[in-house]
Design brief:
15% of the residues lie in helices and 30% in strands. The strands form seven sheets. A seven-stranded mixed barrel has the order 6-7-11-10-9-8-12. The chain starts with 5 loop residues before the first helix and ends with a strand.
Amino acid sequence: MRRFGYMAALLSWFLLAVAALVSEAAGRQRRRLSLTEDDVSCWGTVSLRSRLPPSTGPEPGDLAAGFKVPTLDGEFSYEPGAFGGPVVLHAFTNKSGFLECLWSSDSSLSSLVNGLPDSTQVLFMSFDDSAVSDALWMKEQVQRAATLSKKEVLSRLHFCPVPVFSLGNWIPGVFYSWGCTEPKCGLSQAVFTSSGWKMPIIIKRLDARYDWLKAHWGPASYPLIDAGDGCELSPSVKGAVVWVSEGNCSFFTKVHSMAKSNASGVLVYALPGNPLQDMNCVGDECDTELGIPAAMVHQEPLVAQELRFGKLINVSFQKTPSPNYFFIINQHGALAEMGLFLYPTFKFINWQVQWFEFNADLQTQLRNPAHVVSVFDKVQMQGERGAVATVDLPLGLLDFDTLELDASLSCPGRRDLSCAHWDHTVQLFVCCDYLSPYCNMELGRWITAFRRGIGRWLTDVSPLIPLLDSHNCTFTMKTVPWAMPWMVSLKLRFSFGNLTDDFVEKIRPFKVASLYHGGRFDKNYNKRFQPIKFSIPVSTKKVELYAVITGHGSDEHRCGEFCVTSHHFVVNAAYNNTHIFGSAGSALGCALRVKEGAVPNEYGTWLYGRGGWCPGLQVNPWRIDITKQLNISGSDFNTIIYFGLFDDRHPDPAQQPGYIIMSSFLIFYK
């Protein structure tokens, strides 16, 4: 909310008083952070640590208290529930190369202007003494991007000219106590030393895109050699980190040339007036693996001068912990973390807000009438046993025709820091009668998120109601035994649905026939599967093919996680029912599924499409009505056969074959 009056007049006066400082901000390149011997006498007075508030403060999940802060247009006032949507809080610092690129990149700014959900307000602040000019610069950057867009967004973006350390409310405590200490965040810096210097020169750096150059800077100190623009081979740079200018060729060409010259790494310095850029490969360049790290920095005059004079300079690389740059107040007024931004783009804000919108829709669905049976309530899942519970199911179970799994995975603590690493498969098995052929069949499947514990999903598994063939059933939810613990919650939601158009006749599943399971996706994969003959039970009105299939592992083709595979169920040698994982390996295949519940901003490569799954998402069953493909007469047999292909041919990896996890069934309705 914007308010005008005395505060606006006072702020206008203040801005006029610093006009000389502000005028420099318009259109300027963001300043470099460097430390030289001339700075050492005052370094302590500008230390961020000297302004740190106490480390205690609100935690994720706590309700945010109301607050007011001045903005360039008046005042931003927050009261719980006032906006009806999320409020993102972001604090800039010129000490971060990552944030400089975030705010300088046209594509990043365009994603903020064009992709920010309409329900969202964003409050922009600065950690630095230059908060006034920072706020004006950020607003100008957004206005420039908005002129190219037809979407109105500026009324929902608010720019505070008061430094975070002077806000006088609870906000600084969250930024500082939720600090950024992970290797993939914090302040990335290059440290230059020379025998004639009393102090090192420390400047911010922006490492090349995480999924292009996978090599990391080591702890060693390297000699630094000037290699011009780095576009040609240079035998003299062997073992050194090279200092090259931007321009004249692509980032790929520079790094490729220096890698072939046996350099240890590449520092590309921006030309005067240019911001740091997100160094990345383009197109076919990305298929060439390069074994050295690279980063972009600003040109440091003293370093450039000393190199021209042939003086020996060494460079090392460090990460300095920093405050967090982002947090969010969700539509219910609760504080939440924003996760990790893998590269500098405002898309990560949009994805987080999209997830909150998904979650709001989910809460609406959960208010629909249902008979709810609680199986797990924040029970620890770990080890060979996993989480196990035996529960009583409702009487008249067969009267229900809809079964949904309301599942969530949270972490032992309230912060992402406590969450389990990696993306592992979670499976739910059920056994209601140890003598039944249905005992320990799979009822549901999910994939854990990379160190984020906000996932909650609602999965319709109605066709599998016949697996619940007793009123007392044991449920086992488990992942790989070596995974860190997750806290699992699970509720079964029984309800009525699936009515025919006349709302009179109901059909329900009454029999489940197990078909095929997966295995190693190698040259023998399809040899394991034989045709299955089956007849149709009397009174059957519908037959459905139901399968849950996911690909994992990585051979030389990145199968089965990141390759496109197809899964075929051929009925009566005539009907090929095919399930294709067409988004596997795509750059944003899973990011595009945030609106379906995929957990955003995970601490790993969550963005890429996978073989039938995404990190932090349920695995949706694949269902096909095959009734018309069958001989429905109970006296005749039908046949079905399964096979899986990669690139329209049988898999034949040369090394480390991946594997397919599959549960497939025929479901009979009457």
